Amino acid sequence: MTWGDALFADIEYCVIVALIWRYHRGAVPESTANLRKLSLAAFLTLLILTLTRKCPSWLLTLFGVAPMPMVVMGRVPQILCNFRNKSAGQLSLPSLVMQCGGNFARIISTLCLVPDALVLASHSIAFLFNLAPLLQLVYYDVYKAPKKVE
To answer: Which is nearest to 121 in space by CA: 2, 16, 4?
Structure first.
């Protein structure tokens, strides 16, 4: 029931990666360029298989789980950087609140509509890894921020 949500999340992450690849400054090694072409071909093939309903069920399960490691790999460096700098830098409070709110809504809807442990674990892990930078921002940049004297 939620495979469509996971598919669109996967598409979103792939677009973000493609934009990073496109706007990356500096020379791109030939091996990386080939990896990019292979990744694009694999993505398009899987997308066509999914949309034509010729995709095996194990692959749909993989689509459902794929966003989880992407969120972890995307957030861990940010969390560690915030910890080292004792600041959340340029992170946006409204954006982090909306990400956590969206993850929380997915957790609630999964519990109500699709009691699937794998989907629930995926949304719960995404919530925790989006909550960490939010808590860092509140702690480092709001609570610990030096008070301005007027």
So the answer is: 2
Is the overall model pTM greater than 0.70, yes or no? no
**Is 97 in the same domain as 45?**
no
- Tokens representing 130 are 């989006």
CB 104 within 8 A of CB 121: no
Q: How many CB atoms lie within 10 A of CB 88?
A: 23
Contact in structure between 132 and 79 (CB atoms under 8 Å): yes
84 and 134 in one domain?
yes
CB-hemisphere CA count at 13 Å for 60? 14
Tens place of pLDDT for every residue, the chain, 150 residues?
Answer: 556 666 676 677 777 777 777 777 666 666 677 777 787 788 788 778 777 878 787 877 777 677 778 778 888 888 999 999 998 888 888 989 998 998 899 899 888 887 788 878 888 998 999 999 999 999 998 887 766 666
CB 123 within 8 A of CB 106: yes
Alpha carbon 53 to its chain centroid, in Å, reads 25
pLDDT for residue 62: 76
Residue span of the structural domain in which 51 resides: 1-55
64: left (phi > 0), else alpha (psi -120 to 50), else beta?
alpha
